[in-house]
Structures are given as structure tokens and as C-alpha cells.
Amino acid sequence: MVKLLCVCGLGQGTSLILRMNVETVCRDLGVQADVEHTDVSSASGVAADYILTSNELAQSLQGHSAKIVVIDNYFDMNEIKSKLSEALQ
Question: Which of 16, 23, 53, 72 has its Cβ near the most Cβ atoms within 10 Å?
């Protein structure tokens, strides 16, 4: 099972929306995933295989062991699906 972490600035609304959309995409792709969401400052202490976040926040997560996947539009299911499936290959 792959561990996905959705990160936004405060860990409230935006990352929760992204998490729900990522869970839907994972079901569509048949990917077994544990999906969590958090704020950018807490993310460094959370183990994950992949971090999904915005381009602005990706810079501050560079030291993390997870592969960073930049999502431009958290509401665009097609973008999330294409970027996540590309990252998982």
C-alpha cells in the first residue's frame, strides 16, 4: 500500500479537498493507498511515499524523503489522475 500525503499551508480546507479528490482518483486507478492531509510545517515529520502539494509549497518540502508531486489545481480530477498515475509508475 502506498502512503500519500496531501499538504497545504494550514492543513485545513485545501488539503482536505485534495485528499478527498486523491482518494477518488486512487479508487478509479485501483491503487491501494493510505491518504492523509496536513499542513506544510507538520509534513516534515510525517512518513510518506508521495507528497501532493502546490508548486509554492513544494520548495519548502524539498528535504523530505517522499517524492513530491505538484498539483496546480486541487479541483481538477484529470490533472490529479494524470500526475498521480505518472508518479506511481
Answer: 53
Rounded to whole angstroms, how far apart are CA atoms 12 and 17? 9
As to burial, measured by CB atoms within 10 angstroms (0-12 exposed, 13-18 middle, 19+ buried), residue 23 is: middle
- Nine-digit cell string for 55: 508548486
Helices (H), the chain: 13-29, 40-43, 55-58, 77-88
What is the rounded CA–CA span in Å between residue 17 and residue 47? 20
Q: Which of 5, 7, 8, 57 is catalytic?
A: 8
pLDDT of residue 13: 85
Least confident of 11-20, 35-44, 72-81: 11-20
Residue 11: Cβ-neighbour burial (10 angstroms; 0-12, 13-18, 19+): middle
Q: What is the reported pTM? A: 0.93
